[in-house]
Amino acid sequence: MKVLLKFIMVALLLNGAAQAESLDQGEVDRFVEYMVEVYQFDAAELQDLFSRTQYSQRVIDAMEKPAEALPWDLYRSIFMDPDRIEQGRLFWELNRDALQRAEDEYGIPAGIIVAIIGVETRYGRNTGSDRVMDALATLAFHYPRRAGLFRNELEQFLLLAREQGVDPLSLQGSYAGAMGLPQFMPGSVRNYAVDFDYDGRVDIWNNPADAIGSVANYLNRHGWEPGGQIAVPGQATGDKYTDLLSDNFQPEVTTDELASHDVQPLEQIPEREKVKLIELEKADGNEIWLGLHNFYVITRYNHSPLYVMAVLQLFDAISRIYNAPPLAYE
User: Fold this and answer.
1) Per-residue pLDDT at 272
2) What CATH number does the domain containing 52 carry?
3) Hey, what long-range contacts does 23-29 have (CB within 8 A, 24 or more apart)?
4) Is residue 184 part of a domain?
5) Strands (DSSP E) found in the chain
6) Domain count, the chain
C-alpha cells in the first residue's frame, strides 16, 4: 500500500511538472483568435504550431537576471576581452566596403556598427540557442510584467515567418527572441532590416552586409546626428549630482544644471546641449559620464547606459588596432 501511495504521489508530481511546462492554453486560444481575425491566419495551423511550442523556465530566469544588472566593471569585462577586439578588427577588415557604404548612406560611423555587432553576437559566433517561438510565447503568456511587449513581438514574428516562408520553429535566437548578427527583435527585422547587398533577400542571420546595413538603417531612422557627440566623461564634486540621475534615457539636463550640481564636463560640449547624466558603478570608485543625443539613439537599440558604454569602449579598442580614428565619443 505504501509503495502504491508513493507511486501515485510521484505520478501526480510529474504530471504537475509537465503541466507547468505547457503554455497557458487560454492565452494561446485568445492569441490565435486575434491572429485569425486581424491577419487571416489559419486557426488549426496556429494551434498545431503552439502545440509544438514549449514553455521555457530558462527564458523566464534569464529575463530576471540580465547582464545589464551587473556593476559596470564586471559588465565591461564581458565585452572588452582581447579575442572579441581582434574579431572586431577582422570583421571590419573583411567588410570594409559595406561598412564604408553604410557610413556614407546612413551617416553612422563604421566603428559604431562594428562594435554593436560585436557586443550583440561576437560577430555571429553567439546568436542564441533558444527557439525564438518558444522564447516569445513563454514571455508573451507567462511574463506579466512585459507581456504586452512580447505579445506584439510574437505577432511580428509570425508575420515575419509567413512573409519569408520559413517554419517559425526553425529560427533560433536569444532568450528574449532577438535574432541574427545584430540581434534584431522581429518587429525591428520587419521595419528596419535591409537588403544591403541587393541580392533580392534580407538575411541578417548569415549575411554580414545585410546586418551592417540594417544596423545603420536602424540608428539612422531613430534620429542619429552625423558628426554629433555621443558621450563625454564628467567629474562630480560632492553628492549633489545624484539629484540629476534618472531612469529617463532622454537627455534633459542643461549645462547650467550641471554647474549648479557641481558636475564638470571633462571635454567641451555645446553650451545649449542637453545631456543625460550617467553614473557607472565600479568597485574602485564610480565613473560619471554625460550622454548626448546620439547616446540616446543607441539606447533605442538596447535600453541600458551600460550597453552604450560597452559599445563605445569596444569601438575605441578596435579602432586602435584597425588604425581607424578612435572617434567613439564624438
Assistant:
1) 86
2) 1.10.8.350
3) 23/50, 23/53, 23/54, 23/55, 23/137, 23/138, 23/141, 23/142, 24/141, 24/142, 27/140, 27/141, 28/137, 28/141
4) yes
5) 130-131, 172-173, 231-236, 263-265, 276-280, 287-291
6) 1
Distance (Å, whole) CA 281 – CA 274: 23
* Position 155 in a domain: yes
Q: Alpha-carbon distance 297 to 249, whole Å?
A: 9
What is the C-alpha separation between 53 and 168, in angstroms, rounded? Answer: 10
Point out which residues pair with 62 in neighbouring strands: none
Q: Distance from CA of residue 296 to its chain's centroid? A: 14
Which sequence positions are flagged as catalytic?
120
C-alpha cell at 93: 577588415
Q: Which domain holds residue 36?
A: 24-64+128-188
Residue 123 covered by a domain: no
CA gap 188, 191 in Å, rounded: 5
Residue 18 lies in a domain: no
String of DSSP letters for 69-94:
GS-HHHHHHHH--HHHHHHHHHHHHH
In the chain, which stretches have pLDDT less than 70? Answer: 1-20, 324-330
Model pLDDT, residue 325: 57
pLDDT tens for residues 232-288? 999 999 999 999 999 999 999 999 999 999 999 999 998 889 999 999 988 888 999
Question: How confident is the model at residue 324, as a pLDDT?
Answer: 61
